[in-house]
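User: Predict the complex.
Assistant: Input components as received:
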Amino acid sequence: MRAENETCVQKVRFSFVLFGKGGRKERESPWQRLSRNKGVSPEVLRASKDFLTWRLERIAAMMELLLAAHGDWGLASRSDQVVMETETLDFNQALQILRQHGFRDDEFVLTVEYSRKWGVL
Amino acid sequence: MSNISTVKTTPTLGGGSGLFKKEDYWAVWIGLGTVIVAIILWAAGSKVMPSLAISFPAWDNFAKVSAYLGAHLSGIIGLWFCFLVVFSVAVKILGHDLKAFVPGFTILFILGVLVSILGASTTAKKWSLEAPLMALLVGLIIGNFVPIPKWLDTAFRTEFYVKTGIVLMGATLPFTLILQSGPMAFLQATIVAVSTFLTIYWAGTRLFGLDKRFSTALAAGGSICGVSAAIAIGGSVKAEKNHVSVAISLVVVWAVIMVFLLPILIKVLHIAPGPGGAWIGTSEFADAAGIAAAASINEQAIKTFTLMKVVGRDMFVGIWCFIMAMISVTKWEKRDDGTKPSGKEIWIRFPKFVLGFFGASIIVTLLLASVDAPTAKSVSASIIAPISMIRLWAFIFTFLCIGLTTRFKDLASVGWRPFAAFTTGVLVNVPLGYILSVIVLGGYWAMVK
């Protein structure tokens, strides 16, 4: 038995939701107001455009940071989110990178999954 | 889902695509498939299934074994071939190397035949080293002292074999028995699991100064369902990787100790097989290890063990995960964003092989209920008895694999504080399991046959 032995595999998944609040303080984002049919107007559309531009830029910045820090990521896009996944970077390191660059925990959804390493009872 | 760039594809959890991509589901397909094929062959008047029911007779003179081998050689080869084909299909679709699996499984099967023969000797029986413990012991000795080529690892699939065996186990347990004994098993298992969980958590955080998440992973491993619980709840509460590794190592070490210790205690204390199996189901830490311990007693012990462990404990790991994830997010992290756990987690974590266990039980129970008494006797002889033997072989592969894959040098070293916290839980779990299984409900479990 050795301290450095590992008996599990850690899978880290960052989900960046495109149309949520995106970490903003207000109760709902302009996009959420628009998609819930709470009054549509040119101003709301422009606010939604600004929100989406801001949000996508934030997501792209977070992705760049994570990709720069680590080369082994699985990337995928879904209709409402972008997903990054790895089994080779500890989630604490990834969190630290994002926090150090001013990103808050509510700008992404972090999921940690463990599976047993081969041969473990 | 459209990929914008793919280093590797993000796997989806649950859903239809998982039906052929997960070991749990393959255990269900193989187990239920065996039951259905057995019924079809029986209906067609075939004797194929009984010919596959290979069980070596007790012997003190090897001539008896030679005679049995001579008379049943085609059955042994047929059994090997059937296992090889169905496991190979599963292993291939699960993405493993078939070229390594086929020779590897053949070696495992030959080892299985050898330990079955050795375990049937009167000398082995005298020393209580029947096939299950013999397989475990032989596996542990080979796994820890003999260099094993890496390619053989493909065939050592402990979890896969035990889950397949448990699904087949369903065919030998009437569903009415599961319905009758399930709530009792759940009640007993929950009392012990909650007490042990709280003890390890309390000892870890208060006595030994461990982190809350670390203590939670240790507590889950020691109380709910072993390694499966440690990794599921470790992920739910975002425990550190090295902490989960330590929890797993402690589960493995204590599971191997209990495989030998519990059957010895049951024999020394003259505990009947029914309560003995229930005690193992309550106090053993891993399914595969628990089956090995129960199988070293008798068939009734395997039944009460399965009711307690599978129906009473394993099924509820998802609910534990949901509760612990909720506590972690709302109390420990104090986050108010979109990461709250959803109820879907209960289904995602549900051990799907349990569905196969129920399915196999329902199919055979309905079949028995729909035929007259003489036909029911024929069903027992041509369907249930051979499935019971095939299940035993799946368990023999499991026991060998436990030994062959439990390489103590590969485990993470644990330090005295996690060891002490986990052991505090063992000191609650084992006596409490004894009190409930033997003293309080001993009469009930003795009647479960």
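Helices of chain A lie at 30-35, 42-69, 91-100.
Let me know if you want any component modeled separately.
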